[in-house]
Amino acid sequence: VTGLFSCANDITLGRVVDRSLTIPEQRRHSLKDTLADIPREATSGNEEFWAYIDSVTKNEATSHNPNFKVTDVYGKEWRLKVHNDERRAKREAAANYYVGQKSHLIVPGWSPKPLQGEGVWITKQEEIPAIAQAPRSVDYWIKAFAWFHREVQGIMRENGVELDHVTFRTADEEEIRFREGQKHNDYKFNRNQWEEDTGFLKESRYTTAIHNDPKCGIILEGKNLVGGKFVDLETLADGNPSIDLAMLFVGYNVPEELWDAKLVEYVTWKGLDARYSSFDDELQELRQGIRHAARFTVGREVVANSRYSLTTDVVENNDSMLMYVAKNIN
User: Fold this and answer.
1) Could you give the CA distance from residue 218 to residue 135 in angstroms, rounded to a whole number?
2) DSSP letters along 67-93, please?
3) How far is CA 120 from CA 115, 193, 259, in A?
4) Residues 6 or more apart from 125 whose CB is under 8 A from it?
5) Which of 29, 147, 234, 254 is most buried per CB count within 10 Å?
6) In sequence order, which residues have a C-beta less than 8 Å from that of residue 16 and are 6 or more positions away?
7) Where are the alpha helices (DSSP H) in 160-221?
8) Phi then psi for 99, rounded to 5 degrees?
9) Half-sphere exposure of 162 (CA within 13 A, CB side)
């Protein structure tokens, strides 16, 4: 076995280690400079793991978790992400590893468990080559989500992983976040609308494994649909699939008059959910869900974005999402 993680310690990754591959002394001396951009708490301990990294490039895009493209001493490229939340790190590592073995839609992870640093956790998966990062069509993603919503929950359960339910902040919590953020557009937080939309999504019996944050298209910051693959599976949860589909429709600016055609395509690829007696019943649930989920996800994104630096891209991103809701839903 070759690659960055083949020589990591056996306790961390559960692999048999060839102890003849000792860390060259010059690699020890240069390690500090190589890992300079990675948070110190992430590189605390696990020396053998880090010693086989040859270069590090930090991803400068706005993101909740620092992440890095690294090249190992064998020339293979990987993506490392540093998490402050243990549960989210474990969820992502397990999903990348188990689901990545079943489908090309998931970038393979190396281990079902994250590496632990000093109060942080590190997930690692193969890097998507630049040549493979070309955007895909909305119809491609309709088919991909149909597979994801049909299969992922079962794969996780087969491997002993039960997903948490999607969580929703209360109106009080979201309003506090809204007031703390920087106001840079005409968005007004509507408590009654928030409670109606989150109430529908929480109470719906229509749940499955969802990505829960598939940023794409006009949702510029931190895209999570890359080159035909789902990334950032730390948000994976049991929830209403309308949340994923609404973000897809917003990101690709799918007008309301095309929703039905796309939803028919989605259910056709996925197959009728056993909880519904007819195709039309499931479509009706999705039609309602998209409206609630679009308002909810756009509001969530606008408030979250207001807590980052107000770049031109962020302002335009928010304006585009709010315009979509105003035009197609309100």
Assistant:
1) 12
2) EEEEEETTS-EEEEEEES-HHHHHHHH
3) 9, 36, 41
4) 78, 79, 96, 100, 107, 108, 109, 110
5) 234
6) 10
7) 171-180, 191-203
8) -75, -35
9) 2
3-state secondary structure of 122: strand
Beta partners for residue 237, in sequence order: 210
pTM of the predicted structure, to 2 decimals: 0.87
pLDDT for 111-150, tens place per residue?
999 999 999 999 999 999 887 888 899 999 999 999 999 9
Max avg pLDDT among 27-41, 78-92, 216-230: 78-92
DSSP of 233-285: GGG-EEE-THHHHHHHHHHTT--GGGHHHHHHHHHHHH---TT-SSHHHHHHH
Q: Please state, in angstroms and rounded to a whole number, the distance separating the CA atoms of residues 296 and 247.
A: 10
User: What tokens appear for 93 in the block?
Assistant: 């590592």
Tokens for 57? 């490039």
Tens-place pLDDT, residues 248-258: 999 999 999 99
Q: Which two tokens stand for residue 222?
A: 């931190």
Contacts of 190 (CB under 8 A, 6+ apart): none
Amino acid at 144: A
